[in-house]
Each structure stands twice: as structure tokens, then as C-alpha cells.
Amino acid sequence: MSWQDRLRVVLVQPRNPLNIGAAARAMLNFGFSNLWLVDPYDKAFRDARSAVGAAEVLQQAQVTEHLAEALGDSSLIVGTSAMQGRAEDQVQRALPDGAHPLRTHLEDRPAALVFGSEKFGMSNDDLSHCDWILTIPTEEGCPSMNLGQAVALCCYEISRHARAIPSLKTPASVGADERDRIVQMLVPMLEAGGFILAANRDSQMGKLRRWVGRLRLAPKDARTFQGMLRQIQWKLDNP
Q: pTM, whole model, 2 decimals?
């Protein structure tokens, strides 16, 4: 597997088939082909005429209704956003410098690069799945970019300019699928304890995902943690 094959490009609720086709074409231009779509608005995207030469990328694209599934085993999740008017407590890195840590991770581990809807961008819930945010420097008066162009620019920087830098390499950690399992194990306990209430569920779920992500659990530690949670849940169910 090449390092390009380890990158998942994830489009969340894309609305325009032409943008999906342009994104697929841009990916293939720079050696990427692993495309995932989360709840696409138009199911006819596979016939997009803008995917000149990249029809195979569209035909092989994976579709799911859940972002967590699209992220799979990616142990680094990078969201893309202009972050206008937001005060999220997540690390932000700008292109081109932000491409280096992503390229370093891809040397031997899977990662996901996530793009939001053309109309809404990435929601706070989407961002809560991400380890950090990649921003594209644009003019302040026009911060948003066309989806296909944003994918092209990011793929270009990662493929052509970024390089693997050993000092940027982070310790091995579990993938998004394992993190999501931990979150789902914690939720019923936190609901039972009153930490997560119906009135604040969305906000607390986002905080919980970010917290689990920041732990950067090694695989062995994740197994131990899940064993602890299973035992606690069993005790709660059998007092």
C-alpha cells in the first residue's frame, strides 16, 4: 500500500454532483483514490461529467449515512474549515505547513481528510470527530472555497509540497472506529449519572468525542480502557 492509499477523502453531505466529480478528478490528479461520501444530497453523483478520467474513483466511492463509519480505522482525522466566527478549542493549522504532519502520519498509518457541505461547511458535531483543523489561507472577505477546488488544493499540497518529517511523527493510537466504540460505551453510563441530559446532549457528545480523541490512546491502553468500561457497566446492570 502506498502512502496515498492510506488517505481517506471524506465529503460530508455534498450537494452538487459536479463538485463530487471535480473532487474525484482532483484526487486522482495527485495520486489519491479512496473517496467516502456521507449522506450525499444527490444519489446520481456517480455519473458526474466533471469527473473526467476519474470515473473509476466515483464508481468505487463508498457511501454511508454516518461520519464515524466513513472515518473507519483512520488514526488521524483532519477537518477542513475556515472556522469563521467559531471558538472551538481545537488545534488549527494552515496550508501549506499543515500538510507536513498529515503527510508524516500517512507514511505508515491511515488518516482521513474531511470536507463539509458546500452550503453549510462542517458542523460543530462534524468537527468534534477531528483531531485538528486544516485551514486554507484565503482573503478575509471571501473565506469559503468551491468544494472541488478545496479538495484539489489540499491534495496538491499533500502530494507535491509536503514531506514526511520524523520529528512530527506521533505515537501510534487507535483509529476512529475504536474511539467511537469507547464513546458509545461511555454514553449510557454518563446518561445514567446525569452528566449527559436531553437538554445538553448534542453539546456534551461533542465534548466527549473531543476528549476521547485528545487521549490519543495506544491500542493496548484502549483495550484496557474498554475492559474497565465493560466491567463498570456490568456492575451497574447487576448491583
A: 0.93
